[in-house]
Structures are given as structure tokens and as C-alpha cells.
Amino acid sequence: MTDDHAAPAPAPAPPVADGAANVPRELLGLLAAGATAEELAAPAARAGAGAGPAQAALLAEATEAALSVRRTLDQHRRREAELAALFDTAGDLAALRGLDAVLRAIVRRARTLLGADVAYLTLNDPARHDTYMRVTDGSVSAAFQQLRLRMGDGLGGLVAQTARPYASRDYRTDFRFRHTGAIDDGVGEEGLRGILGVPLRLGDRVIGVLFAADRSPRDFTPDAIALLGSLADHAAVAIDGARLMEETRAALTGLEAANATARAHSDALRRASDAHDRLTELVLRGGGVADVAGEIAALLGGGLTVHDADGEVLARVGGGAPGPPSRGLAESRTSGRAVYAEDRWTCAVVAGAELLGCLVLTGRSGPGEPGRVLADADLRLFERAALVTALVLLLRRSVAEAEDRVRGELLDDLLTDPSRRTGGGSLALRARRLGVDVAGPHVVVALDCAPRVRSRLATEAARRARALGALSGPREGQVVLVAPGDADRAARLAHELARDLGRVLDSPVTAGAAGTAEGPDGLPHAHAEAVRCLTALHALGRTGEGADVTELGFLGVLLGDRADVGPYTARVLGPVLDYDAAQGTELIRTLEAYYAHGASLTRAKDALHVHVNTVTQRLERVSRLLGPAWNTPSRALEIQLALRLHRLARPERSP
User: Fold this and answer.
1) Rounded to 5 degrees, what angle do the CA atoms 194, 197, 199 make?
2) Per-residue confidence at 141, pLDDT binned at 50, 70, 90?
3) Four-CA torsion 248, 252, 253, 256, nearest 10 degrees
4) How far is Cα 103 from Cα 113, in angstroms, rounded to an integer?
5) Of 250, 392, 415, 446, which sits 20 to 30 A from 342 (CA to CA)?
6) Is 281 exposed, middle or buried (0-12, 13-18, 19+ CB in 10 A)?
7) Which runs of E-coded beta strand occur in 154-220?
8) 598-602 CB contacts, 8 Å cutoff, 24+ apart
């Protein structure tokens, strides 16, 4: 039975050609093989040549489905590649330690992933409220690499201000952004057109902007924006981690430096304590300046020289300097600290305001100089050595002053005590205890100076006396020095004392000398003669000079205790006497006649019974022997006195 209401049978499918029937299978095979879009369109094109409309539609539908599947597969592959790249980036960033290396890796990876011509990164500067170019990759413009953008200026400034990504197909013609001359010049010099910028965020805080840019117009797809944003997120974390790592490293470095400083300080304290103990022990056992210099030179590892206030060397260890630098010594005395000048360290040795001397250290460099620099701990030790040296010098001065008092008392007894004629043996014994032998010949020097420096003169004369093995002390407003020596030494010693002590005191010192005193009994007479010589020097206007009575000419003969006319006549007439003796001439007789007749050539030639030319020639010879000033009034007086004394000594030769 037939059902009239049954559904009509479906229309039979149009017949499919054998080639068209194989298209779906071929498309699946091509998809599996990863064929391109052109390759997927080829099967339908071949089968559709003899197909009807219905079959062509089916082939087109199958081809479109295959292309859709192809696009989906491409998207998944691209996404998979991007994720793999992000994971690789995260791994690379995690392996990096330095901030600069992290930033360079971020920019390089951004340029690679987006296939951009240039990639760059700016960081925000909270202090200046702007963002500045930090790292670039692919850039060739120096101006572009040094850009700074105010918040809101340009594409990057807007991203940094709003924390949102922005893209521009062609920045030159895109006026959505605030253009400035500096930004436009930098972008134009770099030749950038299409620009994409995404924020680097740490929580709610933007720390910078990551860019990708092309030198031609470019539309950045949402996938590209998302990819650069993901990379920026990784980068922000990596930057923060690198910063934390650097801060941690800096903290560790600071801690290590602090530990090293603490160890160095501890070592310096221990060394200073050891040095203090050694120097203290040295002073307590009676060590001198040389002992202190040896200890300090060993501790500091250099050459050390100790000078007194006059620059004389008291002790030297190693390769010492010839003398202290004047500028360094002045600065050290003013500041109270050691000073480096003229390739050496100088530290003044002072007691209150008085300069006792200085220490000079060689072989150790100053700040910033090549070589073995004198560190702070060694510098403090060097300065402490100056204090110890001052203590030693003061102790030595105290001993010397006590010894000087004893020497002064002995000197006073030798010069004034009447009992010395009967008690000379006791005086000689006291002198021997002080290391002085008064039994031999001695010279006496009387010294005088301005009253304001007389006490210093006594101190310096005592120091000089100790070096000479002599006695010295104040007496009747003057300073007297008794030193071993004969008459020839008297004048020389007077000259030296006047010159040297005057230079030390920076004030004239006058020295009158007499000699020779044989034994203690002759010292009072020699002292009286030295005082008369000193008085004569002042009277003659020769203050600040030194001399003995023989150098005072005829005044010396008058002032001296002895009629010792021989040296005087020899000094005044010696060349003429020697010439007469050697040549058999009569120059002395001619001089006597010349002066006896009022310096008249005519009367002198009558007395000598010679021609006047002979007298003239003889006097010219005298001028050559005695000098052209022989006939000046002062020299003429001395010559006439010497002639008379010579005639008195040899009456048989008088005319």
C-alpha cells in the first residue's frame, strides 16, 4: 500500500567525475604535508575543468575548508613559535646577571621576534620626570640613541605616561601624538616610519617602554602587539631581577669592603700598639734618637733621617734625604701633620710652639703617586714617631742642660776662683769627669749679641762646646767658650763662631778670641784679653765679626798682654822683609827714610844718597808687594808702627 504523505525521496546527487571525487582526499594529504595555499587550490582547479556548476561549487567549498584549516594550523604554529620564543627569552633573561646584558638581550630578541628594522628600550627617570633612551639594536643615528622624552611627548612619552601600548603606521604623518623638534629630528635621522611601543610594567608602576620600528610604513597586528607586550612583561621582571641582583651584589661588595676595612683597622691597631710598646720600651731603657730612627725605619720600610732645628743630621737610617724640604717642614709645623713634598714625607718635631727638628722619610710614595704609598695607619705611626722623637730630644736637652750647669760652674771657677793656683788639681779632676782636659793649651772666645737672643746664644754655644770637647757658659753679660787649641786656632774659631751662631740666631754675634793659655792658670789672663778684643771690635764698628788680637793690627799689640810684636811685623811687612832677604835689596831702609822725612822723595834720596828715580822704583816695588793701598793714612800708620817695632827688635839695622 502506498503512503501518499511520505516524504519525497532526496534528489539524487549529481554524478561526480572520477577526478573530482579524489579532490577531498588529495586536499587532506596536502594539509597533512603542510602545503601552501597555492598548492591547496591546485586540485580543485584541475578537477573543475570538466565539472558542472554543482560539482564546481562542491570543489570550491572543499578547497575553502582546506584553506581555513590551513590558516588555523598556521595560527597555531605561529602561536606555538611565539610561545617557544617567549619561553626561550625567559630562560635567556633568567641566565643573565648584569643589567646591561639583560637590556641588550631584551631589545635584540624583540627585534628578532617582530622582524623589525630597529628595536629600542627607554627607561623612566623619576628624578627628571622623563624617559631616556637606554639600549638600541639596529640603530645608526647618534642623535636618536641619545633622545630624552618628556612624559606625554611623542609615542614613547605617551606610552610611558599612560601605561598603554600605542602603534603608528607612519609616525611622520600621525598627528595623534605630540610631536617635538628633538623627537622628530631623531626619528627622521634614523628614518623610522612604523613604530610600536608597549609599557614595561612592574605591578602598577611603569619603568620604561619597549619599541619595535620599521623604516617603512607598517600596520602592527594585534598578535604583534600582544607578542611585544608579553616580551615586555618578561623584560620588566628580568630588569627588576637584575636590579635586585646588582643591589645585592653591591651590598655584598660593600660588606666585603667593610670587613676588609675592619680587618685592616684591626691590623693597624695591633701594629700601632706593638709599635707604641716598642718605642715606649726603647725610651724607658734610655734609647737615643738613633735608636728611635732605627725602629721607625724598620716599621715603615723606608729611609729615615732625623734633623735638629738647624737642619743638622742627628741620625740617619737607610737612604736618607740630604735635608728636609723647607715647604714641607713649614706646612707640617703649621698643621701638626706629616706632609708629602719633594718626593719625601716630612713631619715636624715640636714641643709646644718650639721646633726641635723634623723626621724625613724616603722610599714611601704620597697619595696618587706610583710606588709604595704610605697608608693611613703608617702615616699615623710616622706622626707618632715624631712625638716620641720630641720626648727623646727633650730628655736629651734636660740632661744637656744639667751638664751645662755643671760645665758652667767649672768654667766660672776656672776663670775667677783665686784658689785655683793651690786647688788646680781639683779643677783638673772635675774637668776630666766632664771629658775636658784643661792641662793643655786652650783658646778663650768671648761672645756677645743683642740682649733679646742672649739666652739662645748661651744654649747654642753650649751645644757647639759639647761638639768641640770644650766648656761654655754665661759670664758678666757675655758668653765665654774655652776650647782646646793653640794661637793659630783662636782667630779661626772666632770667625766660625761669629758666622755660624749669627746665622742660627738670625742676629749678629761678635766674637773676640785670645790664646794660647797653658793650663788653668793662664785662662783668667786669656779671658781678659778676649774681652778686650771683643770691646775693640765693637769700638771699631766690627760688630758681628770675629777676630783675635793679632788681627786688630797695632791695636792688638796695644791691647794684648804680651809684647808679641813678631807676628804683627810679619803680617804687615812680611812680603817686603822676605824680598829684601831674598834679593839683597834695601826696601825696608827706603821705607824708613821715606817716612822719616815726611814722605818726601827728594829728602829721602838725600838721606839714602841715591838718585830720586831709585827711590821711586823701590817704592813701586813696595806697592807691588804690599798692595796699591799701602800708602793710605790707615795703612801708612800701621806700616810706620811695624817699622819702628822691627827696628826695636833689630837695633843693629837701624839707620
Assistant:
1) 175
2) very high
3) 170
4) 16
5) 392
6) exposed
7) 166-168, 195-202, 205-213
8) 599/631, 599/636
Do residues 350 and 269 touch, judged by C-beta distance below 8 A? Answer: no
- Give me 523's grid cell: 785662662
Q: pLDDT digit string (tens) for 500-551?
A: 999 999 999 999 988 778 777 778 888 888 888 888 788 777 889 998 877 7
**Angle in degrees, CA 564, 569, 571, rounded to 5:** 105
Which three three-digit cell numbers place residue 517?
A: 793659655
Cell, residue 199: 609599557
Supply the mean pLDDT for the chain: 80
Comparing CA positions, the residue from 304, 292, 307, 294 lying closest to residue 357 is 307
Is 0.70 surpassed by the pTM of this model?
Answer: no
Compute the CA torsion angle 163, 166, 171, 177 (nearest 10 deg).
Answer: -50
CB–CB of 293/306 below 8 Å?
yes
Can you tell me the distance from the alpha carbon of 655 to that of 643, in angstroms, rounded to the nearest whole number? 12
- Buried-state track 250-278, b at ≥16 Cβ within 10 A, e below 16: eeeeeeeeeeeeeeeeeebeeebeebeee
Q: What is the distance between the alpha carbons of residues 119 and 108, in angstroms, rounded to a whole number?
A: 7
pLDDT at residue 21, rounded to an integer: 65
CB atoms within 10 A of CB 624: 12
Per the structure block, which three cell numbers stand in for 205? 608602576
pLDDT tens digits, one per residue of 392-432 = 888 877 776 676 677 767 777 777 655 544 444 566 677 77
Please count the other Cβ atoms lying within 10 Å of the Cβ belonging to residue 358. Answer: 26
